[in-house]
Amino acid sequence: MEEHLTVGRVAELAGVTVRTLHHYDEIGLLRPSARTVGGYRAYSPGDVERLREVLAYRRLGFGLREIADLVDDPATDAVAHLRRLRGLLVEQRDQAAAMVMAIDRELEARAMGIRTTPEEQLRVFGPQLYDAIGAAYPATRRTEPRIAARIWEALGDARTVLNVGAGTGSYEPPDREVTAVEPSAVMRAQRPAGAAPSVAATADNLPFEDQSFDAAMAVSTVHHWPDPVAGLREMRRVARRVVVFTYDADETSWRRFWLTRDYLPEFAGLLAGWPSLAELARAVGGRAEPVLVPWDCADGFFEAHWRRPEAYLDEHVRRAVSVWTRVGPEAERRAVDKLRDDLESGRWAERNRDLVALDAAELGLRLLVSGT
Ligand SMILES: C[S@@+](CC[C@H](N)C(=O)[O-])C[C@H]1O[C@@H](n2cnc3c(N)ncnc32)[C@H](O)[C@@H]1O
């Protein structure tokens, strides 16, 4: 009984009423495993862990019945719950950041006497971060042929290919039978005419039979998934080969890039809790190969302009990269102002003199390849 907490103490610690805990007991959601001699409910460390999961799912807006199914799932242990909860909370934070951005823009537009369209006003309530920011994507995001060549080579002789988090389809091989998975309606709507058919789904729950594709690919998307490891396992389940273009979240990666090191340290916060490259490689059962970013990279992803720093002053360049929305408007403004000052004063050029001689840079981008 020593390790048990009384119902009153648990209620106090968790910030809920004793009545709530009684209710959870009555509906079978959280049955305390013991009673005190006086007959009061007593909660073991295991009960408290379960309560933590219940309350976290509750805060995310799940109903009590759904929560019961989630916490009773025998396939999900405490660590898996924490990972899932973390992913869902990060998703919520990203959506809040996107809403702040959209509201700021509408305030700016109104100040200039411009009315936003009903579509623009409602887009922010879409279910995905990319429903809010995706319209800005095609301005600078396109196929980088040298990276595409690496991905297509890694696909080997695969005839049928699933592209997960496909977006507008920048890296889909033209000579194979491709099926795209893309959760954002805004992104799906921007796929060019004649692009591969797309299915509205998410990586952690792919609506396909086991081993139904020769290969599955995912490009610049894994960092958006609430549970990257679960998503990569899903890819492995539905395909015999998996190819993933992603980022090594090791500290050395972001410290190596002047933009994150000197101007946007908030980037490191976005990586907290992100699985290591080794964990990602393990989830696909494969190896990681470095992908250098060419100095004139055609796809405007976050690191693309490492030798063209002025590009980051351009709002269009930033809006097509989710990092800038996810760090929030204050960090963005501060980073851009500081970069502008340093470009004008020559400080950036002085600090980054060595870059001019490089044609390609190692900035932590990796290709994970597994399977036969
Ligand atoms: C940076 S874009 C990359 C798009 C495309 N792969 C490319 O390389 O151009 C990230 C994409 O991941 C999608 N995404 C976000 N969450 C996802 C999830 N849970 N499962 C699958 N895709 C997701 C977004 O909607 C967005 O289209």
From TrEMBL:
CDD domains: HTH_TipAL-Mta. Keywords: DNA-binding. It comes from the Bacteria. The keyword DNA-binding applies. Residues 4-73 form the HTH merR-type domain. PANTHER family: HTH MERR-TYPE DOMAIN-CONTAINING PROTEIN, REDOX-CYCLING DRUG-SENSING TRANSCRIPTIONAL ACTIVATOR SOXR. This is DNA-binding transcriptional regulator, MerR family.
